[in-house]
Design goal:
The chain is mainly α. Helix content is 77%, strand content 2%. α2 (22-37) packs antiparallel against α6 (107-135), α4 packs antiparallel against α14 and α6 (107-135) packs across α14.
């Protein structure tokens, strides 16, 4: 056994305790998508249960964001342990939230419940992405696109599913059900972890050399995720309002145009992530990344000048398709560059800061100029930075330490 470990290290391989099952990876990401966006559809009933106004309700989002950030930055290299801890925390969080609703607890208790919930979702999201990258190291871009398709599907379906179920069930029962689903994920993770038959995967290991990711590379990827998180949330968050203001025409009202445009954006994003594995065998990752960001920039410019609901809905579908490849392909580049598990979690968590900052900046610009069209300069500027960044080549830490050649053209 000791000889095997030495030989594996010499060959640049590491050994995971068990091979992650596809059903577990996709199921956990589907739940992570639900756990990320459920708060919006349930906000009215949670606010009523907490007897608070809109100002107090903002604390819900703050608590969930803080928990998600901490979950990301504390993800360890023990990925199975992180996934188990994340699903367990989310189970407890949903359980506590259901108790808060049942007993009409005070507002601070709701925040206390949302902290472990957000922590669990953030840690599960990061660990599933890393487990997927470890299992499918030869086809990381395609595998990460598919697993993030499951996240997008969960996020897209959540508002409609909750809207339907809320008419037929009490909110505390829904939260109990969510807790039960995450409990099933805990059991599935534990069972998969104990399976026999380890998985050997390639890893950036260099004999006698200690890999070290340069600070500049870490900050570069952090800036990318910060910007993308802000751009995606700015577009998704303000599209409904944009449609209401500029989408009214003979075919539909502004309210209808806004609702359909937002749905079209998220559906385009979801379908696009399912299409990425089909495109990757035919297009280099870097080329696809550059083309997608350029297309997203152009479609956002078109959106800023559009009038009428039909045009906006069409543009939003194209915008979602354009944005779809970005996150999984850049995550692939991060892992190829030698970014560690905790660093990946930190960088993904930074995207949440961008998601909280850029929409606020867009709203401020809209108020000061009196035009939401002008305010779209915020996501357009972010997309231009992402486009410029795709031309930078990142040398993997293990190659840099060994004095090897630069990274290939697969990613950023």
């Amino acid at each position: 056994m000791q000889y095997w470990r030495k030989q594996a290290a010499a060959d640049g391989e590491v050994r995971l305790p068990a091979q992650p099952h596809l059903a577990l990876l996709h199921g956990a990401m589907l739940l992570a998508g639900f756990g990320t966006v459920f708060l919006g559809p349930l906000l009215p009933v949670l606010s009523a249960a907490a007897r608070t106004n809109d100002s107090g309700s903002g604390l819900f989002f703050t608590a969930q964001f803080i928990g998600s950030f901490l979950g990301g930055v504390t993800t360890s290299a023990h990925l199975w342990r992180s996934l188990l801890r994340g699903c367990t925390s989310a189970t407890i969080g949903f359980l506590l939230l259901s108790l808060c609703v049942s007993h009409h607890a005070a507002l601070p208790w709701f925040a206390v419940a949302l902290l472990p919930l957000g922590f669990g979702v953030g840690q599960a999201l990061t660990s599933v992405n890393l487990l997927t990258a470890a299992r499918f190291h030869a086809q990381r871009g395609a595998a990460l696109s598919l697993v993030n398709f499951s996240w997008s599907l969960g996020a897209v379906l959540t508002p409609a599913v909750l809207g339907y179920v809320l008419k037929r069930s009490a909110p505390q029962h829904i939260l109990w059900g969510a807790s039960g689903l995450f409990c099933v994920a805990v059991a599935g993770t534990a069972w998969n972890r104990l399976q026999s038959g380890a998985l050997t995967v390639a890893a950036p290991v260099t004999k006698g050399v200690r890999s070290a990711l340069p600070l500049s590379t870490f900050l570069f990827f952090a800036s990318l995720l910060f910007t993308y998180g802000g751009v995606e949330t700015s577009l998704g968050g303000w599209t409904t309002t944009f449609g209401q203001r500029y989408g009214s025409d003979s075919a539909m009202t502004g309210v209808t145009a806004g609702a359909f445009s937002t749905t079209a954006l998220w559906l385009g994003l979801t379908v696009g992530r399912a299409l990425v594995p089909v495109l990757l065998p035919r297009i280099r990752e870097r080329t696809l990344l550059q083309a997608s960001v350029l297309a997203a920039t152009l479609t956002t410019l078109a959106l800023s000048r559009s009038n009428g609901g039909v045009a906006m809905i069409t543009i939003c579908v194209l915008l979602g398709l354009s944005l779809a490849p970005w996150f999984p392909l850049v995550l692939t580049s991060m892992i190829d560059a030698g970014v560690g598990a905790r660093q990946v979690g930190t960088i993904i968590a930074v995207s949440g800061i961008g998601a909280a900052s850029l929409p606020l900046l867009e709203g401020t610009l809209s108020r000061s100029t009196g035009s939401l069209r002008v305010a779209l300069a915020v996501p357009i500027g972010g997309l231009l930075w992402l486009l410029i960044a795709t031309f930078r080549r990142v040398t993997p830490a293990f190659q840099s330490a060994a004095g090897g050649e630069a990274a290939d053209s697969k990613g950023v």
